[in-house]
Design goal:
With about 325 residues, the protein is of the alpha/beta class. The protein has 2 domains: about 1-105 and about 145-185, Nitrogenase molybdenum iron protein domain (Rossmann fold, 3-Layer(aba) Sandwich); about 120-140 and about 195-310, 3-Layer(aba) Sandwich (Rossmann fold). About 45% of the residues lie in helices and about 15% in strands. The chain has 10 helices and 10 strands. It has helices spanning about 1-20, 30-40, 65-70, 85-95, 150-165, 170-195, 215-220, 235-250, 265-270, 295-310, and strands at about 25-30, 45-50, 75, 100, 110, 140, 205, 220-225, 255-260, 275-280. The chain has a 4-stranded parallel sheet, sandwiched between helices. Helix 3 (about 65-70) packs across helix 4 (about 85-95) and helix 6 (about 170-195) packs parallel to helix 10. The longest helix has 26 residues, at about 170-195. The structure holds zinc ion (ZN). Zinc ion binds near residues 209 and 284. It holds the Pfam family ZnuA. Belongs to the bacterial solute-binding protein 9 family. It is found in: Cell envelope.
């Protein structure tokens, strides 16, 4: 049947450049960029807007970001109010592709203002008993990726989005996602066993900003951010004084600086209390390629090892 064979040949020739082309995907920040790469493998070309060590809370999109997004078939964002700048970028780009909100289906963690009731469980706020500070903690916590159980949901959402824009490789994406999730679950189980051994008085620490509420829930810690949920606002002098009083009275042992934040505030608190800086945590961004937290798995392992090393000390 020469006619059919020749049309198949023509079709094949027409298809091959398309089949070789990678799916252009935009991820809003480095952690999502890595997750998309893990699930998409060789089939995707990932552009990340807020890169390694970058702070998505205060990001300002560039004209290049508009062009990048316009040329993408898939946009992967965190959601939960993390990327306040995304809506304007999205409309400026005229993006026509598929949008995935990676956190869709995650149980959001609500941070409470000091003024609200004190009904919080493992994640306590700085306990101010005065009303002259402007240190607001309230709102939806966007940092859901810091609990690996949530990232299982992120990965499923990403695999679904990739399969929607590239159905030909759906089974590849599903397989990559399943293998990645198995690694993540193993890592989580290993660390749960280690954190379970920490005594009650070694389960509290201070971080630069409130990026670790979900991690604290997962491993039964109390991690208090000196700076609140976003890096946008500086804490007042009264708020810092209240935090220092709390560290002294509760004998909170450890402090942690973050890769996206200025360490000055944490260093000031170290000078005024017995708490000691236990290292640097990667909160909202990976390290650059070749660094110690260049993938989400490496970042999680680094953060959990750093927390344990400081908290396990007698
Ligand atoms: Zn943050």
């Amino acid at each position: 049947m020469p006619l059919i064979r020749s049309s198949l040949l023509t079709l094949g020739l027409l298809m091959s450049p398309l089949a070789l082309a990678k799916v252009p995907v935009t991820a809003t920040f480095s952690i999502l960029g890595d997750l998309v790469q893990q699930v998409g493998g060789d089939q995707v070309a990932v552009s990340t807007l807020v890169g390694p060590d970058g702070d998505a809370h205060v990001y300002q999109p560039t004209p290049q970001d508009i062009r990048t997004l316009a040329q993408s078939k898939l946009l992967v964002s965190n959601g939960l109010g993390f990327e306040g700048w995304l809506e304007r970028l999205d409309s400026a780009s005229g993006f026509q592709g598929v949008k995935v909100v990676a956190s869709q289906g995650v149980q959001p963690h609500q941070m409470q203002d000091e003024d609200e009731d004190e009904d919080h469980d493992t994640h306590q706020q700085a306990g101010h008993d005065h009303d002259d500070d402007h240190h607001h903690h309230g709102g939806i916590d966007p940092h859901a990726w810091n609990n690996p159980a949530n990232v299982l949901i992120y990965v499923d959402n990403i695999a679904r989005g990739l399969s929607q824009v590239d159905p030909e490789h759906a089974s590849l994406y599903a397989g990559n996602a399943a293998r990645y999730k198995a690694k993540l679950q193993q890592l989580d189980a290993d660390f749960r066993a280690r954190f379970a051994k920490l005594p009650a008085d070694r389960r509290r620490a201070i971080t630069s900003h409130d990026a670790f509420g979900y991690l604290a829930q997962a491993y039964q810690l109390t991690l208090i951010g000196a700076q609140g949920l976003s890096t946008e606002s500086e804490p007042s002098a009264a708020a810092i004084a209240g935090l220092i009083r709390q560290i002294r009275s509760e004998k909170i042992p450890a402090l942690f600086v973050e890769n996206i934040s200025n360490p000055n505030l944490i260093q000031q608190i170290e000078r005024e209390t017995d708490a000691r800086v236990g290292g640097e945590l990667y909160s909202d961004a990976l390290s650059p390629a070749g660094g110690e937290a260049a993938t989400y798995l490496a970042m999680l392992e680094h953060n959990l090892n750093t927390l344990l090393a400081a908290l396990e000390k007698p």
